[in-house]
Amino acid sequence: MNPEPAPDDAARATRADRLARLVEEFHALPATSDRRREIVARLDDDCGNADVVAFLTTVVADPQEYDLARTEAATLLRLWPPADLDLRHRAGRALLAALNDPEEDLVRQYAAMALGPYASGDPAVTEALIAAGGSEEDPIVQACARSALKEAGNT
Fold first, then answer.
1. Rounded CA gap, 126 and 149, in Å?
2. What is the rounded CA–CA span in Å between residue 82 and residue 76?
3. pTM of the predicted model, to two decimals?
4. Mean pLDDT, 10 residues at a time, over the chain (155 residues)?
5. Which residues contact 8 (CB under 8 A, 6 or more apart)?
């Protein structure tokens, strides 16, 4: 006799199935489909899930990805930085990759804004934000980097 799954197990399985369906749909869409951004935004309620964080991390770090999906992923990583130190480090490094993307100023702006919660635990993030706040940068990237440093207590 199989016992009924515990409610938490059933909810976890439902969330995992939902994530799998959304990720599959995401990858099946054309690269510039705004639905890709919408899918990322729908993950807001699940940002505590390691699989969601891993997905957001890959989206934000991919220079070939739709820029609005990347900005949405950066926003969620800013609002919900992972508690797990390894996930936090990977998310911070993905945001650094986005910050260093010379082709996408909008993505760079969102990545700079998102890095505030990651700066205190990673000197490379702090250094990148200091550099991005320099006078050679896009003015909005500068302002976002300086704001992130202030948020992190590094001003």
1. 7
2. 10
3. 0.87
4. 57 80 96 95 89 96 96 96 92 95 92 92 89 86 93 79
5. none
